[in-house]
Specification:
Helix content: 40-55%
Shape: elongated
Number of strands: 6
CATH architecture: Roll
Radius of gyration: 28 Å
Number of helices: 4
Length: about 170
């Protein structure tokens, strides 16, 4: 066999090996990019679902539907922290809202959440921090909610709710 032919065979083999290595690397990068896009889409979907829970709670409160408001919380195991103490369980909190804010809309006031920030902690947990205003009513107030959101049975709910509030300044 001609010596020039035998020298070309190893070069050609090395060239194909290099191309296969490049193909494997490109495939791995494509899979990684695909997974990254899927994770971003999931996070965006979860973020929207969590915001929907908070929006639904606001609407329920403002129409005087405290049970609808409480549907956003893990029942019965939600932990409420407010006024420097642990509040009673889900039912106790519902009873408190009905007792202290129920009846006349002027007594209840209007609730509004804003500046909502969500950080996904895992596929089934997120931290939510927001400001709120309860205007009008007998006890106008404003404050900050810090919430641990959990996905339970495919649904986002508040598992831990911490409220830091103050009386709303008169305007």
């Amino acid at each position: 066999m001609d010596e020039s032919v035998t020298r070309k065979v190893p070069r050609l083999f090395n060239h194909w090996s290099h191309l296969r290595a490049v193909q494997r690397t490109l495939l791995a990068l494509a899979l990684l990019a695909s997974a990254s896009v899927a994770a971003a889409q999931t996070a965006a979907t979860d973020n929207a679902a969590i915001r929907r829970v908070i929006a639904d709670m606001e609407v329920a409160w403002n129409r005087g539907d405290f049970r609808g408001y409480m549907a956003g919380f893990l029942n019965p195991d939600v932990v409420f922290v407010s006024r420097g103490q642990f509040q009673r369980d889900w039912q106790g909190t519902l009873d408190h809202y009905v007792r202290d804010y129920g009846g006349d809309p002027a007594r209840r006031g209007e609730l509004h959440f804003r500046d909502i920030r969500i950080e996904m902690l895992s596929p089934d947990a997120a931290q939510l921090i927001s400001r709120y205003t309860l205007s009008g009513g007998e006890r106008p107030q404003e404050g900050i909610n810090t919430r641990l959101m959990r996905r339970v049975n495919g649904r986002w709910v508040i598992a831990l709710n911490h409220v830091s509030s103050r009386e709303a300044p008169t305007r």
